[in-house]
Amino acid sequence: MMIEDFGARIVSVWEGLRPATRKLVVGALQSNPNPASATPRPPAGVRDYDARADWELSRLLFALDERAAESGNGLTTEQVNELRRMAGACASVLQAQTQSAEVFSQLVDRAMKVKDYALIDRLADTLTHRFSAGEMCELVRNTNPVVRALAHEALVQLPLNSLIGTLDDPLDGEIARDAIARQAFEFGSDEARQFMAVLDQEGSDDTLMD
After folding, report:
1. What pLDDT, on a 0 to 100 scale, did the predictor assign at position 207?
2. Using CA atoms, how far apart are residues 3 and 23, in angstroms rounded to an integer?
3. Which of 43, 91, 117, 134 could form a disulfide with 28 if both were Cys (CB 3.0 to 4.6 A apart)?
């Protein structure tokens, strides 16, 4: 099936992709014949993945999902199935590679719509292995309560030093401090408890100086 069969908007987004990004989609389709239901395997051309590919694939995925969901879209059942198959290919690459809070939220939203809780669990696993503390803090501020809950739990699993590195950030600092407090008092981390004691002492000293 030709990309032109999906309509002008999909054609426009597809033509805006770099050749390397198109290769990622094609590789995912070849690696996973039914990517919408398969556990993603690394697609061909994965070494070409970068932040721009992340953005391009996210944009294409959004356009494909929107087109497939349109009522009265004038597409045949076969065309809608192909749209969804291509969307599954984009999603599989993003699931395997993204380190973006925004894209993670997009993937969780998609999984929630089809009640794919196993996929949500797999996405949650990627947080501690692939995402920075800063990206997790951004997810804690997400409007989706499921995304927020996943990010909160992932933050608590981070090494203490990773959380300490974000304390000075004006947006992330308080979130990181809460995660350290949970490590100390909910999970019994002596290291976190000692660090919280230092923070509390510093706060008391600052108050006395004022």
Report:
1. 44
2. 14
3. 43
Q: Cβ(31)–Cβ(43) under 8 Å?
A: yes
Q: Would you give the end-to-end CA distance of the chain in angstroms?
A: 71
* pLDDT averaged over every residue in the chain: 88
Find out whether 175 and 152 touch, Cβ atoms under 8 Å. no
User: If phi over 0 gives left and psi between -120 and 50 gives alpha, with beta otherwise, what is residue 209?
Assistant: alpha
The dihedral formed by the CA atoms of 22, 28, 29 and 30, expressed in degrees to the nearest 10: 110
Residue among 129, 109, 128, 130 at smallest CA distance from 120: 109
Show the 3-state SS of the chain.
CCHHHHCHHHHHHHHCCCHHHHHHHHHHHHHCCCCCCCCCCCCCCHHHCCHHHHHHHHHHHHHHHHHHHCCCCCCCHHHHHHHHHHHHHHHHHHHHHCCCHHHHHHHHHHHHHCCCHHHHHHHHHHHHHHCCHHHHHHHHCCCCHHHHHHHHHHHHCCCHHHHHCCCCCCCCHHHHHHHHHHHHHCCCCHHHHHHHHHHHHHHHHHHHHC
Confidence band, pLDDT 50/70/90 cuts, at residue 70: confident
Which amino acid makes up residue 115?
Answer: K
